[in-house]
Design goal:
heterodimer, A: about 120 residues, globular, B: four-stranded antiparallel β-sheet, 11 strands
Chain lengths: ~120, ~120
Protein backbone atom coordinates (compact mmCIF):
# COMPACT_ATOMS: atom_id res chain seq x y z
CA UNK A 1 0.00 0.00 0.00
CA UNK A 2 1.24 3.46 -0.81
CA UNK A 3 1.81 6.02 1.87
CA UNK A 4 2.63 9.73 1.74
CA UNK A 5 4.03 11.61 4.71
CA UNK A 6 3.98 15.35 5.15
CA UNK A 7 4.81 16.28 8.71
CA UNK A 8 5.83 19.93 8.70
CA UNK A 9 3.72 22.29 10.78
CA UNK A 10 2.27 25.41 9.19
CA UNK A 11 4.96 27.57 7.62
CA UNK A 12 5.34 31.31 7.34
CA UNK A 13 7.57 32.56 4.55
CA UNK A 14 8.60 36.07 3.65
CA UNK A 15 7.52 37.31 0.25
CA UNK A 16 10.24 36.75 -2.39
CA UNK A 17 11.94 34.08 -0.29
CA UNK A 18 12.09 30.40 -1.23
CA UNK A 19 10.30 27.70 0.73
CA UNK A 20 10.81 23.93 0.75
CA UNK A 21 7.96 21.56 1.56
CA UNK A 22 8.92 18.05 2.61
CA UNK A 23 7.33 14.87 1.34
CA UNK A 24 8.37 11.28 1.86
CA UNK A 25 6.64 8.29 0.37
CA UNK A 26 6.60 4.55 0.61
CA UNK A 27 5.86 2.11 -2.20
CA UNK A 28 6.97 -1.25 -3.47
CA UNK A 29 5.94 -0.45 -7.02
CA UNK A 30 8.96 0.26 -9.25
CA UNK A 31 6.99 2.63 -11.46
CA UNK A 32 5.08 5.52 -9.96
CA UNK A 33 4.38 9.20 -10.32
CA UNK A 34 4.71 11.91 -7.70
CA UNK A 35 2.60 15.05 -7.79
CA UNK A 36 2.19 18.27 -5.92
CA UNK A 37 -1.14 20.08 -5.74
CA UNK A 38 -2.03 23.48 -4.35
CA UNK A 39 -5.33 24.09 -2.59
CA UNK A 40 -6.15 27.73 -1.84
CA UNK A 41 -8.85 28.65 0.64
CA UNK A 42 -11.39 28.59 -2.19
CA UNK A 43 -11.02 24.80 -2.29
CA UNK A 44 -9.96 23.88 -5.80
CA UNK A 45 -7.06 21.45 -6.19
CA UNK A 46 -4.54 22.87 -8.63
CA UNK A 47 -1.96 20.58 -10.21
CA UNK A 48 1.53 22.07 -9.92
CA UNK A 49 4.22 19.59 -10.89
CA UNK A 50 4.88 15.94 -11.68
CA UNK A 51 7.90 13.64 -11.27
CA UNK A 52 8.05 10.14 -12.72
CA UNK A 53 9.98 7.47 -10.88
CA UNK A 54 12.14 6.85 -13.93
CA UNK A 55 12.85 10.49 -14.66
CA UNK A 56 16.55 11.21 -14.40
CA UNK A 57 16.19 14.93 -13.88
CA UNK A 58 14.26 16.85 -11.26
CA UNK A 59 11.05 18.36 -12.57
CA UNK A 60 10.66 22.12 -12.83
CA UNK A 61 7.62 24.23 -13.69
CA UNK A 62 8.19 27.94 -13.48
CA UNK A 63 8.80 28.83 -9.84
CA UNK A 64 8.16 25.25 -8.74
CA UNK A 65 10.82 22.57 -8.64
CA UNK A 66 10.76 19.08 -7.25
CA UNK A 67 13.80 17.79 -5.39
CA UNK A 68 13.49 14.07 -6.10
CA UNK A 69 15.73 11.73 -4.11
CA UNK A 70 14.64 8.25 -5.11
CA UNK A 71 16.88 6.30 -2.74
CA UNK A 72 15.57 8.31 0.20
CA UNK A 73 12.00 8.18 -1.16
CA UNK A 74 11.57 11.89 -0.85
CA UNK A 75 9.99 14.40 -3.23
CA UNK A 76 10.29 17.86 -1.76
CA UNK A 77 8.67 20.85 -3.42
CA UNK A 78 10.64 24.07 -3.68
CA UNK A 79 8.77 27.29 -4.36
CA UNK A 80 11.13 30.07 -5.33
CA UNK A 81 10.44 33.81 -5.03
CA UNK A 82 7.27 33.35 -2.96
CA UNK A 83 4.29 35.52 -3.77
CA UNK A 84 1.29 36.40 -1.63
CA UNK A 85 -0.87 34.25 -3.89
CA UNK A 86 1.19 31.20 -2.90
CA UNK A 87 -0.56 31.13 0.48
CA UNK A 88 -2.41 27.81 0.43
CA UNK A 89 -2.35 24.17 1.47
CA UNK A 90 0.08 22.06 -0.53
CA UNK A 91 -0.46 18.35 -0.99
CA UNK A 92 2.02 15.73 -2.09
CA UNK A 93 0.49 12.73 -3.85
CA UNK A 94 1.53 9.51 -5.55
CA UNK A 95 0.09 7.08 -8.08
CA UNK A 96 1.50 3.62 -8.68
CA UNK A 97 1.52 2.21 -12.19
CA UNK A 98 1.34 -1.50 -11.39
CA UNK A 99 -0.67 -1.08 -8.21
CA UNK A 100 -4.09 0.49 -7.95
CA UNK A 101 -4.91 3.67 -9.78
CA UNK A 102 -5.56 5.71 -6.71
CA UNK A 103 -3.87 9.03 -6.29
CA UNK A 104 -2.92 8.89 -2.62
CA UNK A 105 -2.45 12.18 -0.80
CA UNK A 106 -0.51 13.31 2.23
CA UNK A 107 -2.10 15.47 4.88
CA UNK A 108 -0.74 18.66 3.39
CA UNK A 109 1.45 21.59 4.37
CA UNK A 110 -0.02 25.01 5.17
CA UNK A 111 2.02 27.89 3.74
CA UNK A 112 1.38 31.53 4.57
CA UNK A 113 3.34 34.14 2.65
CA UNK A 114 3.81 37.39 4.54
CA UNK A 115 4.67 40.72 2.94
CA UNK B 1 -10.89 25.70 -22.03
CA UNK B 2 -13.42 23.80 -19.92
CA UNK B 3 -12.02 22.04 -16.92
CA UNK B 4 -13.78 19.64 -14.58
CA UNK B 5 -17.07 21.10 -13.38
CA UNK B 6 -19.07 20.04 -10.37
CA UNK B 7 -22.59 20.89 -9.36
CA UNK B 8 -23.71 22.10 -6.90
CA UNK B 9 -20.86 23.98 -5.24
CA UNK B 10 -22.56 23.82 -1.86
CA UNK B 11 -25.30 21.59 -0.47
CA UNK B 12 -26.89 21.79 2.94
CA UNK B 13 -29.20 18.94 3.82
CA UNK B 14 -30.86 17.45 6.84
CA UNK B 15 -29.76 14.13 8.24
CA UNK B 16 -31.58 11.28 6.59
CA UNK B 17 -32.12 13.01 3.25
CA UNK B 18 -30.66 11.82 -0.03
CA UNK B 19 -28.30 14.00 -2.06
CA UNK B 20 -26.88 13.71 -5.54
CA UNK B 21 -23.83 15.46 -6.97
CA UNK B 22 -22.84 15.77 -10.60
CA UNK B 23 -19.43 15.90 -12.21
CA UNK B 24 -18.60 16.77 -15.81
CA UNK B 25 -15.03 15.77 -16.62
CA UNK B 26 -12.72 17.24 -19.23
CA UNK B 27 -14.27 16.00 -22.44
CA UNK B 28 -11.47 13.81 -23.76
CA UNK B 29 -10.69 12.24 -20.38
CA UNK B 30 -11.78 8.62 -20.07
CA UNK B 31 -11.04 8.26 -16.37
CA UNK B 32 -13.15 9.87 -13.67
CA UNK B 33 -12.48 9.81 -9.93
CA UNK B 34 -14.41 10.75 -6.81
CA UNK B 35 -12.59 11.84 -3.66
CA UNK B 36 -13.75 13.04 -0.27
CA UNK B 37 -11.91 15.61 1.80
CA UNK B 38 -12.60 16.46 5.42
CA UNK B 39 -11.24 19.47 7.24
CA UNK B 40 -7.48 19.37 7.78
CA UNK B 41 -6.98 16.21 5.74
CA UNK B 42 -5.87 15.35 2.25
CA UNK B 43 -8.42 14.00 -0.21
CA UNK B 44 -9.35 10.33 0.21
CA UNK B 45 -10.14 8.10 -2.74
CA UNK B 46 -13.73 6.89 -3.07
CA UNK B 47 -14.08 5.35 -6.52
CA UNK B 48 -13.05 5.62 -10.14
CA UNK B 49 -14.40 4.88 -13.59
CA UNK B 50 -12.75 4.13 -16.86
CA UNK B 51 -15.31 5.09 -19.46
CA UNK B 52 -18.59 3.77 -18.04
CA UNK B 53 -17.06 0.94 -16.02
CA UNK B 54 -16.60 1.43 -12.29
CA UNK B 55 -13.24 -0.25 -11.79
CA UNK B 56 -12.50 0.34 -8.15
CA UNK B 57 -14.28 1.31 -4.95
CA UNK B 58 -12.78 2.23 -1.63
CA UNK B 59 -13.93 0.70 1.62
CA UNK B 60 -14.92 4.27 2.51
CA UNK B 61 -17.74 3.92 0.00
CA UNK B 62 -20.44 2.43 2.20
CA UNK B 63 -23.61 0.93 0.76
CA UNK B 64 -25.28 4.33 1.21
CA UNK B 65 -23.04 5.69 -1.52
CA UNK B 66 -23.48 4.95 -5.18
CA UNK B 67 -21.74 6.39 -8.18
CA UNK B 68 -22.61 6.08 -11.83
CA UNK B 69 -21.19 7.14 -15.14
CA UNK B 70 -23.86 5.88 -17.52
CA UNK B 71 -22.49 6.98 -20.87
CA UNK B 72 -18.86 7.37 -19.99
CA UNK B 73 -19.17 11.14 -19.82
CA UNK B 74 -20.62 12.83 -16.73
CA UNK B 75 -20.89 11.07 -13.38
CA UNK B 76 -23.21 11.28 -10.41
CA UNK B 77 -22.50 10.47 -6.78
CA UNK B 78 -25.53 9.79 -4.61
CA UNK B 79 -25.55 9.55 -0.85
CA UNK B 80 -28.65 8.02 0.67
CA UNK B 81 -29.83 8.61 4.24
CA UNK B 82 -27.14 11.18 4.89
CA UNK B 83 -25.39 11.28 8.24
CA UNK B 84 -23.52 14.13 9.89
CA UNK B 85 -20.28 12.25 9.27
CA UNK B 86 -20.87 12.63 5.55
CA UNK B 87 -20.20 16.36 5.82
CA UNK B 88 -17.14 16.96 3.66
CA UNK B 89 -15.91 18.34 0.39
CA UNK B 90 -16.57 15.90 -2.47
CA UNK B 91 -14.04 16.30 -5.24
CA UNK B 92 -14.25 14.95 -8.75
CA UNK B 93 -11.22 14.54 -10.97
CA UNK B 94 -10.53 13.27 -14.45
CA UNK B 95 -7.56 12.09 -16.44
CA UNK B 96 -6.56 10.21 -19.52
CA UNK B 97 -5.63 6.56 -19.12
CA UNK B 98 -1.92 6.14 -19.56
CA UNK B 99 -0.75 4.59 -22.79
CA UNK B 100 2.76 4.07 -21.49
CA UNK B 101 3.44 2.39 -18.18
CA UNK B 102 6.30 4.71 -17.43
CA UNK B 103 4.22 7.86 -17.76
CA UNK B 104 1.75 8.59 -15.00
CA UNK B 105 -0.67 11.34 -15.87
CA UNK B 106 -1.99 13.91 -13.38
CA UNK B 107 -5.57 14.14 -12.24
CA UNK B 108 -7.38 17.38 -12.89
CA UNK B 109 -9.82 18.32 -10.17
CA UNK B 110 -13.03 20.28 -10.12
CA UNK B 111 -13.88 22.89 -7.52
CA UNK B 112 -15.72 20.36 -5.39
CA UNK B 113 -19.12 20.14 -3.77
CA UNK B 114 -19.17 21.07 -0.12
CA UNK B 115 -21.79 19.02 1.73
CA UNK B 116 -23.09 20.02 5.13
CA UNK B 117 -25.43 17.61 6.90
CA UNK B 118 -27.35 19.21 9.76
Amino acid sequence: AQKITQTQPGMFVQEKEAVTLDCTYDTSDPSYGLFWYKQPSSGEMIFLIYQGSYDQQNATEGRYSLNFQKARKSANLVISASQLGDSAMYFCAMREVYGNNRLAFGKGNQVVVIP
Amino acid sequence: DTGVSQDPRHKITKRGQNVTFRCDPISEHNRLYWYRQTLGQGPEFLTYFQNEAQLEKSRLLSDRFSAERPKGSFSTLEIQRTEQGDSAMYLCASSLAESELWAVLPLHFGNGTRLTVT
